[in-house]
Structures are given as C-alpha cells and as structure tokens.
Amino acid sequence: MLKYCAEIWDEVRSKRPLVHCITNYVTVNDVANIILASGASPAMVEYPAEASGFAPLASALYFNLGTLTGEQEAAMLEASWAAASRGVPIILDPVACGVIGRKVDLIERIKSLCKIQVLKGNAAEIKSLAGLAGQAQGVDSLDTGEGLAEACLQLAAEDKLIAAATGEVDIVAEENRYACILNGTPLFQSITGAGCMAGGVIAACLGAAPEEAWLASITGLLAFNLAGERAASQAGNRPGTFRTLLFDELFVLRGEELVKEGRLE
User: Fold this and answer.
1) What predicted TM-score, i.e. pTM, was given to this entire model?
2) Which of helix, strand or coil describes residue 114?
C-alpha cells in the first residue's frame, strides 16, 4: 500500500492539480500554502457568481465549514452542482457539525446536488454524523477514539464515500475496509488549523488521483503526518517553529520517503 501512496504523492507534483477551496477565515492562508507545499495549485474562490464558473475547471473542490458565512454557503451550493456536471471530486470538512445544526443541514443540501467523495473530520465530528455520541469542545474533539473505526465504516457504507477521521490515530475507511495511519505528532494540537491543512493536502492528492479516492485520502494524511513528525523532531516544544517547519518538510517530502518512513495498518 505504501508503494501506491508514494506514486500518488509524486503524481501531485507532476500533475499540479488545481484545488478550488472554500474554507474558513481562520486558516485560509495556511490551507493555500500547505496545498502549494504539496505541489498542487490552490484557488480560494468563494464569491457565488464566480464559484459556479470556476468549479468545473478544478481538479478537486475542498469545502470547510469552519467559519461558515451566508456567502460561503451560497458559493458551496453553486460550486456543488457545477462540479457535479463535470465529475469534479469534492472533499468536505464538517467542522463543528456536532454542535451547530445548521452545518448538518448544509451537508444534506450539498449531498442532494452532488456526490461527496471524501468526508474528513475529527473523531467527534465523524461520530456525530454517524449518529453516535462524540465529545467536542467547540471545533476541537475531546473524543478518545473508541469506536471510531466502526463510525467511519458506517458513514462510508451509508453515504457511499470515503470517511477520514483524524485523531491520535487517523482512520480512513471505505465501505468494506479501513486503514490506520500511525505517523503524527501531538504538536498538531498546539497550532490552529492542522485539520484544515490536512484537508487541503487530501484535496491535492484527490485531484491527482480522483479514481483512487481511498488511497488518495490515505496518502494525503500520511504525507501530512510524516511532515509533522519531521518538523516536530526539529522544533522541540515550540509550536511557532513547528508550524513553519511543517510547510518546509511537506515541500521537500517525496514518495520514496513515504515508503521508508510511513506507518500504516
């Protein structure tokens, strides 16, 4: 599996997929730069009249519901139907869906317009969408991860998509199988937007390999987590330094290093 992940990761740089992002204001710059560091090309197009025309040109769409405005909501709906007409894959991050019901309503409206290929959230968000109890504090998960694989498999089977949950161990599931990603670092919890950035990296991989959504999602999280491990080993206990090094390490990461250092089950 690591061999296939390495091939997809190197394809991101060779294909340079265009990723259309409608994401939250807290982390929009970080998401744009992490996509660039991956080797893809970000476009932060969220004006509704522009989103519908731009979405079909993209290799992948990334929706993040973190600081959802009325304009963003309208843009996501416009982009959804436009992308559906061209088969552009969509990854959605349902930030705080367990504590803000409006976001669940929007997810259902998006699903009525198009197919969501990848649903990526933290443990509490994924469990909430699966109808299970998850512990959250605002946008942050306090969930221990117990039963998370089952929740991912349930969502994947019910909605015919890839369910990716981040936590101490990341889990990526499709209908009948799942993978655990063991790389990572606790320093992700010390910076804002780690989850948003991880979603951007998955979107880059999905744009490069849309026919392999499960493997592309695993690849994105694996590369992001491995870059985090490397950054943490140099940063010590300094989250600001870690953030900067995270971009650098992802930028220089190559497929052969995923094979050597990646840890999957």
Assistant:
1) 0.93
2) coil
Residues 6+ apart with CB under 8 A from 152: 126, 130, 163, 164, 165, 171, 172, 173, 178
Domain count, the chain: 1
Q: Give the rounded distance of the alpha carbon of 147 from its chain centre.
A: 21
Q: What's the rounded Cα separation, in Å, for the pair 106 and 95?
A: 12
* 36-60 pLDDT tens trace: 999 999 999 999 999 999 999 999 9
Range of the domain at 159: 2-261
C-beta atoms surrounding 236 within 10 Å: 10
Read off the CATH number of the domain in which 157 is found: 3.40.1190.20
Length of the chain: 265
Question: CA-CA distances (angstroms) from residue 23 to 46, 108, 166?
Answer: 8, 18, 18
Distance, in Å, from the CA atom of 31 to the CA atom of 243, rounded to the nearest integer, reads 12
Binding residues for substrate: 44, 193
Burial class for 3, CB neighbours closer than 10 Å (0-12, 13-18, 19+): exposed
CA distance 265 to 247: 26
Residue 33 near residue 244, CB atoms below 8 Å:
no
Digit-coded pLDDT (tens) for 193-248: 999 999 999 999 999 999 999 999 999 999 999 999 999 999 999 999 999 999 99
Binding residues for ATP: 120, 166
Binding residue numbers:
44, 120, 166, 193
- β partners of residue 93: 64
